[in-house]
Amino acid sequence: MKLFFSNRINIMAAFVVITLMVFNIYNIINNTPMVPNQFWAQKIFYFHVPIAWTGFLSYFIVMIAGVLYLINKKNFWDHLGFAAAEIGTLFVLLVLITGPIWAKPIWGTWWTWEPRLTTTLILFLIYVGYFMLRAFGGHPERTSRYAAVLGIIAFFDVPIIFYSVRFWEERYQSHPQVEITKQNPEIIIPFLISLVIFTILFIFMLKYRLHVLKVIFDRKNN
Amino acid sequence: MFYTLVRKDLLLELRTKEIIIPMFAFGLAIIMIFALSFNASQEINHAFSPGLLWIIILFISSLGLNRMFVLEKEFDAFTLTLAAPIDRGTIFVSKVISGTILLLIAEIMIIPPFIIFMNIAIPSDWHIMILILLIGDLGIMSIGTIVSGLSMRAKLSEMLLPILFFPLVSPHIIACVKATNYWFKGLSFINWQAWIYLMLSFVLVFFLLGFMIFEYITEE
Question: Which residue among A145, A153, A161 sits closest to B219, beta carbon to beta carbon?
Fold first, then answer.
């Protein structure tokens, strides 16, 4: 049983990730233009959207890992699904926190029942259930199987949630994710840098969590 | 085989009445609480009633699902069903169908007191409502059966079921409430057919998904 940070490559990776993140924050504060009538509130775009992207990416990984676990029953896929679910839920929680911070000055309200917000909230609640299932599932092998199934179901629920709320709430609202595609290069480039850095952070966190889960698993079975 | 399984569930219910009567009694209790706590004018009751009706249906269906699978757990009946040479997908379909039938019966018992206590007037084309209820129940039972299968053998299964079930079924409930609302306002079908299609797509997705995946849920 080796510690994660006893590996020199991992120490290097941690150092690189921290440096990149510090650079990212500096870059966003100093090198991005102020958007008229949004001012500082707009800066949260550079965090909110990449965090949302990584959150949904990790839920996608949960689904893929679930399918693969059901097919070949390798523990690796179970651990991957669990790790991605944990990190995804953390990131989605951050999305649910940063979103209202932006919405209050721009929309004038903390929360509206609008497709993206509702989908994210429902998905978050499903994953709260996912962790309860993990915790109270009983037999470990069965719990892993159930968690894989739930990961797949949750993924299939997303488009239906999105469209049901979209039919229901038809008025259009400006959105970080929608608006960012219409911006000029001064905004797009720092945004893309932030996106890449958050994805790297996500991969690093996933690797760390996978290591921990494997250690716990080995300890339980020896 | 499918017919036998559905018949077994319904016969069991006919003899014990352990699912429908509690569902009905619980539904009645919620209606009373709603009617008393709102105690409002008829217009407000009119505006709220589609949502309230589906909240009641959701609550009683989670109660019914719980009972259905507790019955299966008693005397280890489900293990015997699984040991029989039946495709697991067929077991899933039979559970969905028998659950839908039981839920429909409970709803038909619940709706008259709902109308009376909430003091609402319903449109004359009530057969459309039966259609909405049928599709709604199929969706609720498809996802409900999957989730019951997942939570059935867990610790705290009574608590886990609604926690998993409500968020997953929420888009379907939105569609059901919307469709009921439009029907209630007397709009013609053309105006709100999108909601029916949304409900149907939910039923289709989770019915097929459950059919495919139930094998992994019930595996020992």
Answer: A145
